[in-house]
Every structure is written in C-alpha cells, then in structure tokens.
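ARCHIVE RECORD
Type: protein–small molecule complex
Small molecule: S-adenosylmethionine
Source of inputs: curated submission
Record status: active
Notes field left blank by submitter.
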Amino acid sequence: MAYQTGSEVSADEYNKIWSGAWSTGTTRWDKGDVSPALRELIEDKQWVLPSGQGIVPGCGRGYDAMFLARPGLHMVGADLSPLAVEAASKLRDDKGISSQLVSFAVTDFFNFKIPDEKYQVAYDYTFFCAIHPSMRADWGARYAQIMSPGGHLIALMYPLQKAEEARGRGPPFMVTEDSYHDVLDNNFELIHIDSNCQTHDTRVGEEIITVWRRK
Ligand SMILES: C[S@@+](CC[C@H](N)C(=O)[O-])C[C@H]1O[C@@H](n2cnc3c(N)ncnc32)[C@H](O)[C@@H]1O
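STRUCTURE (tokenized, with ligand):
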C-alpha cells in the first residue's frame, strides 16, 4: 500500500505516523472523493439513515462526512491531526457547505467527551486499518460506547486479505471479515453486507460494505 511505513509500529507510536503524514503532505490514501461504496449505498440502494448526529472518525479531508450530512443529520468529522481538520474545514467552506450541517474537530477517537445523545450514525473507512491491531478490541468497545441503541455503524471493510495474509506491517493493517466480527458481534448486529459494492479503481476486491446496528 502507498502509505505503508515499512516497519511494524507499537500502539504508542502509531499516532506519530499520522501527524507526520499530514505535516509532510504524504496523504496518499486520499482518493479526493466520497467512497464509491458509500455513495452507492445511500444514493442507489437508498439506505435510510437515522436522523440525529453522526461521526466519521479518522475523517481526513472529510469527503464522507460532508456527503453524509443532510438536514436532520449533523455530521462530525473527527481526526487526530489539526492539519486534517484544517483541510477538511477549508474544503467544506470552499464547497459552500454550512458548518451547521458538518463540523470538523481535532479529536482522538479513543478519548473524547461523548455527547449525551450519543451518535445515531457512524462511518468507518480506512480508520480500522489505520489503528494498530492491538487496539481493535478498544475500537469495537468505543463504538459500542458512543452509538445510541439502534444506531447504524457503516463500516467499509478495507483492505481485505485472506486470513493467512492479514498479518504484518502497517498502517494500513490488513483486515478480514472476522477482524470486524471479533470486536463488534457482542454489541452490534450485522444488518447489511454487500461484497459486490463499488470501489475505488485501485481497491477492487479489497472492500466490502457493511452496516451494523447497535443492539
Ligand atoms: C488512512 S487515513 C484515512 C482518512 C480518510 N478516512 C480517508 O479515507 O481519506 C487515517 C486518518 O485517521 C486519523 N487518525 C489516526 N488515529 C486517530 C485517532 N485515534 N482518532 C482520530 N483520528 C485518527 C489520521 O490522522 C488520518 O487522517
């Protein structure tokens, strides 16, 4: 993968990779647009999103958060990097999208104050694979904490590999369908899966879109 560091990193070190990537402008994961699978789910398959408040952790330049935002659904794009938040906010302003619809905030997904009403929608893409595998259980527990009952976690699985190949170096850290089941099944029910979803050209065969309902 383009943003592979070439060496295994500890959980403590991984966030330095992200601030370093943003400060040097090496954001080669960035496809410059909404994920095709998400657009297809919402526009073609007419997936009905709950209203309320949504979050996109590790939002980068915020394309997906901006796409999901709509009257009745305020989206928050959350990223560890101030440079990411700055870029996303500028893009939103350039597009003339109101901050009433989508806001961006410097946020550590694993440690921020959860609003009383929690989140009714979350979108996770290239975030699960961005965190160290040792943090995956915390990732699942954190989504369980921040989502309201009945809330929809849309997880675009990526980069999918066969189990025996899904180890090793990153980020991105390779994933399997089981990587998600292992940490979500206790608190979420899988209510939609599409393994033939549209993908970015360079990611064909590596993505499956899923929706998980908070129990
Ligand atoms: C691979 S990039 C993906 C960005 C975006 N989702 C996209 O597809 O363009 C991962 C992003 O997660 C952010 N990130 C990493 N750890 C984070 C954390 N603990 N909380 C919030 N954001 C984090 C990084 O700064 C980076 O922008």
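CURATOR ANNOTATION: The chain has six helices and seven strands.
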